[in-house]
């Protein structure tokens, strides 16, 4: 049961990190895009 809880927690952390990273990456692309053009 504890192992299951650890797996769920780890999956949730990774999912949150990926979601946060993609959001920051989009903002970075939006900020850099006008400078390139």
N-end to C-end Cα span: 54 Å
Mean pLDDT: 84
What general form does the structure show?
Answer: rod-shaped
Q: Please report the total strand number as a whole number.
A: 0
Low-confidence region ranges: none
Helix-and-strand structural type: mainly alpha
Strand content: under 5%
Largest sheet: none
Topology diagram in text:
Blueprint: H1 2-36
Keywords: Membrane, Transmembrane, Transmembrane helix
Transmembrane segments: 7-24
Could you describe the 3D structure shown?
There is one protein chain. Helices cover 95% and strands 0% of the residues. It is built from 1 helix and no strands. The N and C termini lie far apart (54 Å).
Short description:
By secondary structure, the protein is mostly helical. The chain has one helix at residues 2-36. The mean pLDDT is 84.
List keywords for this structure.
transmembrane helix; 1 helix; transmembrane; membrane; 95% helix; single chain
């Amino acid at each position: 049961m504890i192992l299951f809880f650890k797996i769920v927690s780890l999956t949730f952390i990774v999912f949150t990190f990926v979601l946060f990273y993609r959001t920051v990456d989009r903002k970075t692309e939006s900020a850099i895009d006008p400078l390139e053009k």
